[in-house]
Automatic annotation (TrEMBL):
Region described as Disordered: spans on this chain: 449-471
Enzyme class, spelled out: hydrolase
Gene coding for it: atsA_110
Requisite cofactors: Ca(2+)
Protein name: Arylsulfatase
Organism: Novipirellula herctigrandis
């Protein structure tokens, strides 16, 4: 009789609860302007990241994780779509830089996501997932008539907290209250943005986690400027900097260190909440960044930083915790990139791939489960037909080799990243055959994705650039 009662109780459970137990939840944490050397698990000593280091020790840390672009909007579009920015023609941050007298004209490019594409949150929603977006969106046009049609809630998210056209906090208090963001409580004077968004994330987990499987996509505004942190943390790191032996030549900015600590606190609070709710073992946690840090001493010794063509602008922390599947404390040196998240999350969820959508990503589940030590892919690509800190360029990584092509003058740079990860020796003239092989492959790829190219600028005036430099 007791077994019959147990069976009746089981049948009476809500269908959504059973679904939540059969499908994993996902917490995706995307950090803005995150340098490869910003976390302790990636070598930082001045910054303090015990919670993030603990997360890395519970999952897999990738040493060759990449963003799909060296600036934010294209990288974010690549994560959500599984497509290279070149394929999307969304190749610069919104709204980009203006260089009307530069040597080359910037091609037409998109400032919004194509509403016809089925993005990652839409694919999960169709499979019964609840979806929430928190933080920085920066994937919508500014001041256009269809402005309201491009919020996160128009692209598969049930909830949007804080996401709008901004690429950085622009509310009255910037990182401090008031914030001026959609659906985010301004709180009290002195409240810090990262804390308030984390409050909202924890509230979401409380309200949603037991109803159905979920994707919580938390795109932090931090560590983007303006660089500011609570006064007590700035004071803490000012004191620490005085006696700090900076052998690694780290960026000893007290305010940025405080921002990193607040980020780490946020990750810790989210992980604690998953434990409290009893869903940590059924929740996959992913942590990465959208492009390199905004300073050359945030990249763990890699060359250059945000917006540059070299490794410091595009190589990112990349951590995945998949309880019961990914070996705790494991590492992987196989190159992976932001386009891979879409097919990987579908694969983890037991859902069929959407090969007509995530055209450029591959599932990294074989790496996460140690069932393979390589992927059925050797090559990664970048396309940036815009002016920023660097001149326009394209790049290809094939195995250990990386080639950069600068569009203005055709200059080529070739590096062996295994032997020279800091890109100190250009081998283009020493290895001409390898250089031309990679250049042919890069051009072939651009044609295959219909990458928009630059053209000669009829208004080019080289004297303007020189005059600006003199000023």
């Amino acid at each position: 009789m007791l077994n019959v009662l147990k069976f009746i109780v089981f049948l009476s459970l809500p269908i959504t609860l059973c679904a939540a137990e059969s499908k994993p939840n996902f917490v995706f944490l995307l950090v803005d302007d995150l340098g490869w050397g910003d976390f302790g698990c990636y070598g930082a000593e001045f910054y303090e990241t015990p919670n993030i280091d603990k997360l890395a020790n519970q999952g897999m840390l990738f040493s060759n994780g990449y963003a799909a672009c060296t600036v934010c909007s294209p990288s974010r579009a690549a994560i959500l779509s599984g497509c290279y920015p070149a394929r999307l023609h969304l190749t610069d941050w919104i709204t980009g830089h203006k260089r009307p007298y530069a040597k080359l004209s910037v091609p037409e490019w998109s400032t919004k996501l194509d509403p016809q594409r089925v993005l990652l949150p839409e694919a999960l929603k169709q499979a019964g997932y609840a979806t929430a977006f928190l933080g920085k969106w920066h994937l919508m046009p500014i001041g256009q008539p269809d402005f309201d049609e491009h919020y996160p809630t128009s692209h598969g998210f049930d909830v949007n907290i804080g996401g709008r056209e901004w690429g950085q906090p622009k509310g009255p208090g910037r990182y401090f209250s008031p914030f001026g963001m959609p659906n985010l409580d301004d709180g009290e004077t002195g409240d810090f943005l990262t804390d308030k968004l984390t409050d909202a994330a924890v509230d979401y987990l409380d309200q949603t986690s037991r109803e159905q499987p979920f994707l919580m996509y938390f795109a932090y505004y931090t560590l983007h400027g303006p660089i500011m942190a609570p006064p007590e943390l700035v004071a803490k790191y000012k004191t620490k900097a005085k006696d700090f032996s900076n052998e690694k030549d780290e960026f000893l900015n007290p305010a940025r260190a405080g921002m990193v600590e607040k980020l780490d606190d946020s990750v810790g609070r989210i992980m604690t909440k998953l434990d409290e709710l009893g869903i940590a073992d059924n929740t996959v946690v992913i942590l990465t960044g959208d492009n390199g840090g905004d300073h050359d001493k945030t990249t763990g010794g890699l060359r250059d930083f945000k917006a540059y063509s070299h490794e410091g602008g595009v190589r990112e922390p990349f951590v995945v915790k998949w309880p019961g599947k990914t070996r705790a404390g494991s590492t992987c040196d196989v190159p992976v990139i932001g386009t891979d998240f879409y097919p990987t999350i579908l694969d983890i969820a037991g859902l069929a791939p959407r090969r007509d959508q995530h055209l450029d990503g591959v599932s990294i589940v074989p790496l996460l489960t140690d069932s393979a030590t390589t992927l059925n892919r050797d090559t990664l690509y970048w396309h940036y037909p815009h002016y920023h800190r660097t001149n326009p360029y394209g790049a290809i990584r094939d195995g250990d080799w990386k080639l950069i092509e600068f569009f203005e003058d055709g200059k080529l740079e070739l590096y062996n990243l295994k032997e020279d990860p800091k890109e100190t020796q250009n081998l283009a003239s020493i290895q001409p055959e390898k250089t031309q092989e990679l250049l042919r492959n890069l051009k072939k790829w651009r044609r295959s994705v219909d990458a928009q190219m630059m053209t000669d600028n009829p208004d080019h005036d080289p004297g303007i650039g020189k005059r600006k430099k003199k000023k």
